[in-house]
């Protein structure tokens, strides 16, 4: 068995669904192993994300706050997993600017609580189980700060320089994980990913927000002049990278997982518009006519880029999706998932979007 914290969130739920779903042409999952999802179901944690595997007997769920170390330890002792994969996090930069306290609580204190529970559990395991146990921590490229236009991409040895409360909280969690390996011998692995996109992403992030606003005839808000650059990673590729690190990663090591797709935000939005133009045309003109530029957010990092040559070289992983193929899959999923969209876009969510983007939302 494995544990997945934050398994009802965007990346975590994609990982769980992929883990429990047979690959194309297969009658059973390649990873025929139970999963216990631990999630406290905040605004972005949604059991509907797990609907396609809800009836799978290998899926277990516990509504639990990761900050409760004693409760997590009790679950570890009861189910005796061979790995704990830590996806749970507050992850939206804009929310961290308006309310950093929750990011400190979840990302720092929550990771500390998990590490303490895992350290105790690991110390109680007998030989073979102890040798097999892994604590895999899922982090972000934002811990590295911001790059200039011609700076080399972030590598695993890039100095940390977080620029938002979100990035700082994730950097702190990374340092805690590293310290628990070097101080206590906890068998940890860390992954730092670039910007994810794909099915099941909560619609406050750029790609689902633009996709859904376009379909509803609303403005498509872009911060500043839209020239901020991000490396985009399809969530399915991210999940395969995490599985690869879990299986073959060297203990105590960090692996950057990227999509090798740097794009300006404006180009991303125009690509979404072109994809929608092809899949669900407007009555007249292009969806790009709805693009609206809004006031930039404080401390907006100019560029992120991931050098993922280490995981490619050492573990043989490479991303499969191009941005063109990944964004088409993503847009098609939102077009075909109106019930999910309606469920997550509550009044509370719309209040948040209005607060963040003003009249452009």
Task: Please outline the helices and strands.
Blueprint: E1 2-5, H1 10-20, E2 35-39, E3 59-63, H2 69-79, E4 83-86, H3 93-98, H4 101-124, H5 127-132, E5 134-140, H6 165-184, E6 188-193, E7 195-197, H7 206-215, E8 220-223, E9 229-234, H8 235-248, E10 254-257, E11 262-264, H9 265-279, E12 291-294, H10 309-315, H11 323-335, H12 338-344, H13 347-357
Parallel strand pairs: 1-2, 1-4, 2-3, 4-5, 5-6, 6-10, 7-9, 8-12
Antiparallel strand pairs: 9-11
Helix pairs in contact: 1-8, 2-4, 4-6, 7-9, 9-11
Give structural notes:
The protein is an alpha/beta fold and 361 residues long. It has a domain of 242 residues: Rossmann fold, CATH 3.40.50.720. Helix content is 43%, strand content 15%. It contains 13 helices and twelve strands. The strands form three sheets. It has a seven-stranded parallel beta sheet with strand order 3-2-1-4-5-6-10, with helices on both faces. It has a three-stranded mixed beta sheet with strand order 7-9-11. Strand 5, helix 6 and strand 6 form a beta-alpha-beta unit. Helix 2 runs parallel beside helix 4, helix 4 runs parallel beside helix 6 and helix 7 packs across helix 9. The longest helix has 24 residues. The protein is globular, with a radius of gyration of 20 Å. 43% of the residues are buried. The mean pLDDT is 93.
